[in-house]
Amino acid sequence: MKPPSWPGGVVTLELGRRPEILIAERERAMAGSTTVSYTENLRKYLDLPQNGSIQAEYIWIDGNNGVRCKTRTLTKKPDNVEELPEWNFDGSSTGQAPGEDSDIYLRPVAVYPDPFRRGDNILVLCECWNSDGVPNKFNYRHDCAKLMEAHKDQVPWFGLEQEYTLFDELDQPFGWPRGGFPGPQGPYYCGVGTGKVYCRDIVEAHYRACLYAGIKISGINAEVLPSQWEYQVGPCEGIEMGDQLWMSRFLLHRVAEEFGVKISFHPKPIKGDWNGSGLHTNVSTAAMRAPGGMKYIEDAIEKLAKRHKEHIAVYGDDNTMRLTGKHETGNIEQFSYGVADRGSSIRIPRSVAKEGYGYFEDRRPASNACPYQITGIMIETICGSLEQ
């Protein structure tokens, strides 16, 4: 029997004591030190006047494919992103720089209204740059933006379907029975009712936070694995796709923080006969969206087939655990496509096949993949590299 996992490490089972009793005792001990934020106590302070100052939350992607943030005070509301000052942080603490040369610079690239502080306060998405004036090695946005600019005449649109799973403080899917499993997959997808869906309050809060911030969130649904959900962002044009998806992830973590719930983007959060989590990527160009566009969709798929391994290399960590050819996935070693086939690498929606134009869906990216890497290599493959 594998010992249960705890936030502080692995529990040592005491001789002669049943594991379920120890778990119950740990739960009672943790009840007095919950990580849930006391938002109601905070609210009265958020109503205090700011005397003309603005709080700007600077947000960036770290060296472990996660989000970080810190706040600074501005003396006036900026009219555009160019007016925002550059800032810096300790890159040795985020996996982005060595300790002897740790300063990493934050260059603002996009601004959004802050749904937590509200008023004139803002969220600021930033790129990371080294002190020598070159992009940090984890700054995937920089090259992606250049590709999008080079091919902007093709008007690339994207829509990303972000799947994720909610875990409790004991690192178990929220709502699952202690030490056991819920019933098999079936009633949970787009489910309604107790025992079928979990954490709808968090999902709804995140939805509203995205709308307030101007994120182009286009929908939500409960997924196949209980306590797994999906939201969709898009359609977005060019570099805006990566910006909006990363900001939506920040908002999801930030909302869940107030409920004491953890967000997992792991592509196989639960081993066994359970669906994994993906970041299905819907793609089109202006030519694909026009009558007769199927020809351009087929041309794109032919190009994608030739670079399958290169795409898989940047489509997320631990994706081998998910792309097994089962649970509505294709096999990671083989490229495939089909109409309405959710077991293929590329799916052409049936409506697109019928009308003869529209878009296609790349089902290979894992839920933890970087949207800048996904959209960047997609445009490089179907539209051409910067050197061409």
Automatic annotation (TrEMBL):
Record carries keyword Magnesium: no
UniProt keyword annotation of Magnesium present: no
Residue span, GS catalytic domain: 140-388
GO molecular function (one): glutamine synthetase activity
Ranges where the GS beta-grasp domain occurs: 54-133
Annotated EC: 6.3.1.2
GO biological process, one term: glutamine biosynthetic process
GO cellular component: cytoplasm
Catalytic activity: L-glutamate + NH4(+) + ATP = L-glutamine + ADP + phosphate + H(+)
Keywords: ATP-binding, Ligase, Nucleotide-binding
Family: Belongs to the glutamine synthetase family.
PANTHER family assigned: GLUTAMINE SYNTHETASE, GLUTAMINE SYNTHETASE 2 CYTOPLASMIC
Subunit structure: Homooctamer.
Protein name (record): Glutamine synthetase
Organism of provenance: Ascobolus immersus RN42
